[in-house]
Design brief:
The strands form three sheets. The protein has a six-stranded mixed sheet, sandwiched between helices. It has a two-stranded antiparallel ribbon with strand order 2-3. The chain has one domain (10-152): L-asparaginase, N-terminal domain (Rossmann fold). Strand 9 (149-152) and strand 10 form a beta hairpin. By secondary structure, the protein is an alpha/beta fold. 26% of the residues lie in helices and 33% in strands.
């Protein structure tokens, strides 16, 4: 992998909790700080495409994500994304040839001490380097085929279908 293109779209991974309002808002992408703190041994570029909760993503937003990938020369793409509609976005990206695309996110904001963000990003970085061209979801310590996974909201995890 020469360089990793990282596209950030928002989602829980980048949420900030405002205690005085008991409200979450999507803040600056956290992945760059996480990768620098982990002293990774590869080059990466972050394209902060949008800051949306995935429940608010539209077909137009998914077309923007697709266009950003197609317009790039990067063969390896990691997308941080909200978990609720991650599978929907993955399906829109399925037929992009010659790219390994991995979507990941977090069930708790990266700014929280017990967040799964760093673990999921690490898993996604490994997957984007080792999987053949195609689209994958990296969550809960597994690399999933998007056509065979769903988010179980009650258990707060991804599971096979």
């Amino acid at each position: 992998m020469n360089q990793l293109l990282i596209i950030t779209t928002g989602g829980t991974i980048d949420k900030i909790y405002f205690d005085d309002k008991s409200d979450y808002q999507i803040g600056e992408p956290q992945i760059s700080q996480i990768l620098h703190a982990m002293n990774v041994g590869f080059e990466f570029e972050v394209n902060a495409l949008m800051r949306k909760d995935s429940l608010h993503m539209s077909d137009e937003d998914r077309k923007r994500i697709r266009a950003a990938i197609v317009e790039s020369d990067a063969e390896h793409v990691l997308i941080t994304h909200g978990t609720d509609t991650m599978v929907d976005t993955a399906s829109v990206l399925q037929d992009i040839p010659g790219r390994t695309i991995v979507l990941t996110g977090a069930l708790n904001p990266a700014r929280f001490r017990d967040s799964d963000a760093v673990f999921n990003i690490g898993c996604a970085v490994g997957a984007v380097q080792s999987q053949p061209a195609g689209v994958y979801i990296a969550m809960n310590g597994r690399v999933w085929d998007p056509a065979r996974v769903r988010k179980n909201r009650d258990a707060n995890r991804f599971e096979p279908i």
